[in-house]
What does this fold into?
Amino acid sequence: MDNLPEWKKNLRKQLIAAREAIPAEHHRLWSRAITGFLKQGLPQPQDMIIGIYWPFRGEYDPRSIAEYFLQHGATLALPEVTGKNEPLCFREWSPDTPVKSGAYGIAVPLETRIVRLDAVIIPMVGFDRHGYRLGYGSGYFDRTLATYEHQPLTIGVAFELQRIDSVYPQAHDISMHYVVTEAGIFRTKDHHLTPASVLQNISTSECQ
It folds into this structure.
């Protein structure tokens, strides 16, 4: 494709605008469905360190599932941008953790310990049929995942209206192990997203 960066830039604008325009009731219903699928996909998160994110510009809010994970023995963490071309660091977080305003005005835990992740729920601006994610263009998650010898379980989250045919991935792009939308859980297998049974646990063995 000619001028791929410009194409991705325009696509991001379109997809973010579409997400921000979702009627509030639809957003609540779809988010509730995603929360349900995450609970079914990770029913036993005890002893896992799970990265989540602070919602931004109409994204699914993973804080809605935070209490469930914490009650079931998981440790949660939020990302912090430490430099423009640096990987993210993840700091331990719970709902009563003091936060500060970080990059882009997104909340960051205040001086909690830095952790390494077993699994990470990643927001997506868009995603394609091969399990690749279109992000905001800064490359933070790709750089972060590249620092792991054994990748954490990657769970991309989006709404179905953000599904596209292809993001035209580059060599540095990393596909998601799973994608979760309001329509269900989808597993990346043989470079294709395929529906996964809601009774089939998302397993950390996927990323070993």
About this structure: The CA atoms of residues 26 and 32 lie 10 Å apart. Residues 24-41 form the longest helix (18 residues).
